[in-house]
Specification:
Elements: H1 46-52, H2 73-79, E1 85-90, E2 96-101, E3 104-106, E4 109-114, H3 119-126, E5 129-139, E6 145-158, H4 161-172, E7 192-204, H5 206-209
Antiparallel strand pairs: 1-2, 1-5, 3-4, 4-7, 5-6, 6-7
Length: 211
């Protein structure tokens, strides 16, 4: 959900980065190249490099595997399980902008609703590269907490944000809770829906163990 101020990265309500080690600890990006391979990001653009797939040294975690590019049943269950997601977009100066969002699925797209043209919405319109992460509960045999990383490209559609937020509120707040809150008789603004097409899925969890 998108409840940050239009000019900044702060949210007033919830709802409104990526690494994957191999078995030997070598970090892989979308193309299967080891960390340190060339990525299309400007020199010094750390956020752009992260969204392109490069991960800084020292961020590997044990228990990794091969990169995946599909939404498996386990990934879909995590994305629809009511876990708060951290969405990272790129500001005009290349710096990262992060917010907490509610997410759901529509087909093979990850969706989030935003009632205004907040910074993340404007960022996606300019640069579609995004990263989404979430802690999903549980742990692997080594005791490492399960987490999910999704990299992809996003697009913005106008309208239907309130209907999406109401559907997600059933998951995040509970059945019968009206959201977004509006004065009696007021119609919600059309808002915006961010739609993410995943290009990479990683992290630690059953999606990794099943691959």
């Amino acid at each position: 959900m998108g409840h940050g101020s239009p000019g900044g990265g702060h949210n007033h309500l919830p709802g409104d980065v990526g690494r994957r080690p191999s078995a030997r600890g070598t970090l892989l990006i979308d193309t299967g190249r080891p960390m340190g391979a060339h990525v299309d990001a400007p020199e010094g653009d750390a956020a752009g490099a992260l969204l392109a797939g490069e991960v800084p040294d020292g961020h590997a975690a044990a228990g990794g595997g091969q990169a995946m590019t599909v939404l498996t049943g386990e990934v879909r269950a995590a994305l629809t399980g009511g876990h708060l997601a951290h969405l990272v977009t790129l500001n005009p100066d290349g710096s990262p902008q992060a917010t907490v969002v509610w997410v759901g699925l529509e087909g093979d797209e990850i969706v989030s609703g935003h009632m205004g043209s907040w910074q993340k919405v404007r960022n996606v319109r300019r640069d579609p590269r995004v990263v989404l992460t979430m802690v999903t509960g549980g742990a692997n045999d080594l005791g490492l907490a399960h987490y999910l990383i999704v990299r992809g490209t996003a697009r913005v559609t106008e309208g239907d944000a309130a209907a999406l937020l109401q559907r997600l509120a059933t998951v995040y707040l509970g059945p019968g809770v009206p959201f977004p809150p509006l004065p009696p008789g007021a119609d919600p603004p059309p808002g915006y829906v961010l739609r993410i097409t995943p290009t990479y899925v990683g992290g630690v969890g059953p999606w990794q163990e099943a691959h």
